[in-house]
Amino acid sequence: MKKTLALTAFLLGAALAGPANNSLVIGTSQEPPNIYDPWSTNNLAITSEINGFMGAGLIGLDDDGNAYADIATRVPSLANGDYKVVKNAAGDVVRNSVTYTIRKDAKWSDGTPIKVADFQFWLKLQNDDRVPVPDRTPWDKAKITVADADTFTVTFEPPYLFADQVSMPAAPQHVMSAAWNAFDAKTKNEKDAKVTNEEWKKFISSFTTSRNLPKVVAGPFKPTAWRSGNSLTMTRNTNYWNKPKGGEDKYVQTVVYRFIPNTNTLKVNILSGQLDALSAVGPTFDQGVDLQRNERGKFKTYFVPGAIWEHIDINTRGQKAKDLDMDDPRMRQALLLSIDRDALTKALFQSKQAVSNSFVNPISKLYKKDVRDYNVNVAQAKALFAQLGWTAGSDGILQKGGKKLSLNFGTTAGNSTRERVQQILQAQWKAVGVQVNIQNYPSSVFFGPDFLSKGADGKWDLAMYAWTGNPIVEEGNLFKGSGVPTAANGYSGQNNSGWVNAEYDRLHKQAQTEFNLADRIKLFDRMQTIWNSEVPSLPLYYRVNVYTKVPGLVNYTFSAYTLYPSWNASSIGWASRGAVEEYKQK
Question: Which Gene3D superfamilies has this protein been placed in (predicted)?
């Protein structure tokens, strides 16, 4: 009933004006639980995409992977002296640093100048143990030295390999400092992590208006309305400094995201002309193929190679996981050997999405090609189940000690491709005696604070979702032992499976300061071998991003480097309104 109502509501809407009123309406299958959290405690793809319209960085990358200056006056480099590497007598790099000068006209959306203090404020909170950030690396080794109100140096000791390729975020101190002081006072001696986490939520909410919109942002657009379950509206921020060619009046003035969780409904809306474009978090692969067959000059569909890794996390934490032997690599290997991923990608993706056997994307120079390929092998899978003491019951389901091998398998509700993958895998696992129960959730719940990070509470067994990587920056952080979210660390970290391996952690730590690429490749070779043997997550495939846009919409592009079409938000516009095309989708 809900799906029918959603479809009806969207199709009954008035036809979109598009270039007529210089607006842009984008459809997406997910709605973020919050937006523009400077510490990215909600690490959701759609949040990152929307934040691209509202955020700004010191530097950024374009579709070709070339750096450009945004808040900073120029891109730091060894040549211009803003990037420095210090070695000891033995020739080892002991520290490196990056110096930035903030543009004089860089301002928050309320007109307040962006200053060094905003970066200092962000860094202080980023490294506070009470803040539930996904990962503190590399900022836990960073120190800011101030030259003046606009110039500062970020020093990493030990050195950070990608110091010149990433830029420290900023947070509006003038808006948030009072609320932070209140949070600090309330939680300074608090022993209960849950209480601290609730106070953090209050702190973040203090940064938003009664309509859940951030009070200030730094990017090309600022939010003006959020109708939960329906849409988010953003209007051009006149205080944003990087003006597009020919003047910002020639480019999109209003951006509306429509939240349509059912991807089939999303497809119908683009077919019926109700949307100008689709988000990178939008249609599934097969829906993209169908859209491509029905373009008829009304829109164009793209399949963009990316760095998105689809996988299934296995919960190895808690008593339930132990009872099910999920903490034993043999169980995880058996689960992987029971499924036919080659057949799956052929059936669903015409074999255009490559089967994965590693957490490193094949775009990366660190990718190891010759790790074990877990082709389906039911005989080996059954042998491993037997080693662990699981035997088939009268109904064919494996059991041990009176308990069935019954697993809860969840993903984001409404994503038709993931739901089809679930059904295929459910049938394949049933064939070897594993009972899988499908339990899906809205993305706001699935990626919210009380699900994936709470594996120790037994809230899930198998969780299918994607991680977005960076082909330039690969650190191996997803599976480091210190990244397991727990009550003690405020549920920060991204290692939701809870897998910990001492050798992997040692190699990972060593790789963080290995500037020689050949030696770093050797470290990652071993890390991938360990990971591939232990399989804390079941690797599925590397995704291509599917999205659609109507003719005449320019600079709405992305790549594996930029990740989302919002990277170039200021320059998105309609050719008929005078917008200059700088980038074409490749």
Answer: Dipeptide-binding Protein, Domain 1, Dipeptide-binding Protein, Domain 3, Periplasmic binding protein-like II
